[in-house]
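Q: What changes when 6-O-phosphono-beta-D-glucopyranose is included in the input?
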Amino acid sequence: DSKHLYTVIVLGASGDLAKKKTFPALFGLYKNKYLDQNTHIIGYARTKMDQATFEGHVSKYIKIKTEADKVALQQFLKLCSYQDGQYDQDKDFQNLEKHIVEVEKASGSTARLFYMALPPSVFIPVATSLKRNNYHSFEKDGILTRLIVEKPFGMDLESSRKLGRELGALFNEDEIYRIDHYLGKEMVKNLMILRFANVIFGSVWNRQSIDNVQITFKEKIGTEGRGGYFDEFGIIRDVMQNHLLQILSLVAMEPPVSLSAEDVRDEKVKVLRFIPPIVKENVLLGQYGKSEDGKEPGYLDDKTVPHGSKTPTYAAATLFIHNDRWSGVPFMLKCGKALDQQKTEIRIQFKDVPGNLFTGLSRNEIVIRVQPNEAVYVKMMNKEPGLGMKTIISDLDLSYSSRFNDSVIPEAYESLILDALNGDHSNFVRDDELDAAWKIFTPILKSIDQGEIDPIPYAYGSRGPKGVGEFVAKHGYTRGEQA
Ligand code: BG6
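A: The predicted holo structure follows.
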């Protein structure tokens, strides 16, 4: 694939995602020479914009730290151009085609990466227009086509399957790259190495040694301006069904036969298929209200949120994996907006030490902090230094900021776009994986949508709804000293 020179076409180029993630990631790759220095980028959206406005748009969220960055940005912008058009008009996509062909003639590019940073309502219309007007077969025309698509991939099993069928009628599975940007995060990519390149973890990674697993996502911000989108989906569809479940599958899957994309994804799908649908008793929902001091608005104060909405902004759910490795081990997924801190972490808690040789013991834990301040640490008992034989809990600490130069940690989107350019599907979601994920969540989402589970209110900036502590305790998590 490296022999191909790409033209990248960003559909939805005036939107938030393109501005905040896609263009900065493309620039990062360009600046660090991962992108061929002759890669052209074409933006397409409905908004009319001249070149200068578009350049402002592209650079808005790009961080310039050095003089070299500044120079690189000027060169990068020369590679960017814009074309406006509707999302369902063939003549507009024919104009886009002319634009692409011109660029291809000038640069010698032989591959197209279409990046769909679009709202779900125009997803299929755009894919259809692309297929009709901008698609070439590699065999016939010598032009390679790849398509990056972004969630939401449907609302439930049924709508996801419908979307899959419609997209599948237009593009082959090997041309489609479904992004879950958590799969591009450094610490999520590290999971396979931690598990399968260390003999010390392998033999304890099972129900004989592990008591429970918690995967937690916390954000300080509320829905700020995204209330319209968010209210339709809720936190489970927004974060849990995709990002947290992806992490779970990497924590729980069996070792793959090889690192090939299909071998890795075969194992991920397999472990998901061992998880029965979540039951109501194992779910706790919350919705944020105003902050304690009244300064931060509640979810329902957001003008884009329908009056009286019961959409959860917080959710905790416990899943079980019915296979030999994990039977009986609770996997608790927790996620929420407008909480006290921003943090994503995986916490693997081990069982109590058998016997009663020592007192005052805490359980071992392996904690993988995904963000911020990437780290892996192991909570373990140690002798308190000094005379006597007192035990103390301490950490074996691999914090990236002190061990590695943490400024080299790439953005998730950089990693994923590079993978797509190289034709590597390992960190993208396969159609059957998506299907398996929806099967786990669809029944509980139906109950929630029908208003069968009321969200518990919590204050903006707090630790979440009352009862979360009891919820994790109920599934075996213990904090501090063992009884
Ligand atoms: C997105 C969700 O997929 O992930 C957002 O739609 C959420 O609601 C975001 O804020 C979190 O991503 P990150 O990389 O900032 O942790």
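Observations recorded in class: The mean pLDDT is 95.
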